[in-house]
Amino acid sequence: MRSAGGAGKDSGAGEDIGTGVPSNALGTWVFSIAGALVAIPVGIKRKSLAPLVFFGTTGTMLDIIMGISACEREHAERQMKLMEAQNVSTDASLVDTGSES
């Protein structure tokens, strides 16, 4: 995947660098569909749209929560990798400076 400007590398974590949206965020539709599939027969039996509203919104909220959790987890992993890389480069520069003295 490329960034919005077209000049970016794929981070390998399944993320579009330009937008910061993980590619698996688009896969968070399972609970919405499950909620609708449960709500349709219940709504027909009760002759009401209330189950569709309840199960549909609950499924959508679960999908949103799962997507946000995945984003936060990937962001935390990426930050840890960046911090480790900075620590390694800082340690390497300190070793080089210490050997010159």
From TrEMBL:
Query: Which residues are listed as membrane-spanning?
Result: 26-44, 50-71
Highest taxon listed in the record's lineage: Eukaryota
Q: Which UniProt keywords apply?
A: Membrane, Transmembrane, Transmembrane helix
Q: What is this protein called?
A: Transmembrane protein
